[in-house]
Amino acid sequence: MEEMLSNVFKALGHPIRRNILDLLKQSPKTTGELNESFPDVTRYAIMKHLTILEEGNLIVSRRKGKFKLNYLNAVPLQEMHNRWVGKYMQPTANSLLNLRSVVEKKGDGQKMTETNKSFHIEQEIFIDGRRDQVFKALTEKVEDWWEFRLAPKHLSSQFTFKPVPGGQFIEKWGENAGAIWGTVYYVNAPEEIRVQGHLGMQGAVNSAYTYKLIDKDGGTVLQLSHTATGVLQENWEQDHKHGWEYLLGTLLKKYVENKA
After folding, report:
1. Rounded CA gap, 8 and 259, in Å?
2. Separation CA 207–CA 211 (nearest Å)
3. 191 phi/psi in degrees, rounded to 5
4. Which residues neighbour 162 within 8 Å (Cβ) at sequence distance 6 or greater?
5. Among candidate residues 248, 218, 255, 220, the one with its CA nearest the CA of residue 132
6. What sign results for the dihedral spanned by CA atoms 153, 233, 63, 55?
7. What are the sequence ranges of the domains in the chain?
8. 50 CB burial (10 A radius; 0-12, 13-18, 19+)
9. Which numeric CATH code is attached to 2-72?
10. pLDDT tens figures, 221-241
11. Which residues form the HTH arsR-type domain (predicted)?
12. Class of domain 107-259
């Protein structure tokens, strides 16, 4: 853990690397696009900066055809926040999340803007636990840590997640009420599971997310990929980025490591 934090601080220690993260916060970019953003810096230097950012786990790279896209991975920053700031903010965390949602969606009586577009989220989290423990927490034990709910606020709800082809991730409340968060269309336990589901989004949306688990340094690297296309509201991409960081980088990580 301390070595990981040292790599994060090292990665943040150069202004060009911080500027690269600012660019990736806007959208994923190829190495060539990043190089064009720094005309006074050689391509070799940009690649070296990207390597240091990867060592700090602040970016993840995924090949798309002949190009390699670089994505911001803000989870290590969330972990730093949790270590030095989180305990002071925890009592109000949910209230602030709820307040932000209300302000963004209903503030000033403005109508939410919807456009036909897509987003793609890539994140990686290191969890100090075995791969089978992480897989079980992601599926069979999801109710123990998954905090986001679609049930009306005055009702309690229960979650189930069956990690088999055709199995569903379901939230139920009341006698005959509930919601399907996703349906499993591929599973290779405890290495990978792919799910199709709206994850709280409404309307004409096609959404799918994948968990991949990789053994590393006595623990597990959890790779998340989430893609959504259709009629998307402007704030949904950022909301889901922050939501995944909180769910996986804070709640799931803490749950598994405390159990382990």
Report:
1. 26
2. 14
3. -100, -35
4. 139, 168, 184
5. 220
6. negative
7. 2-72, 107-259
8. buried
9. 1.10.10.10
10. 999 999 999 988 888 888 899
11. 7-82
12. alpha beta
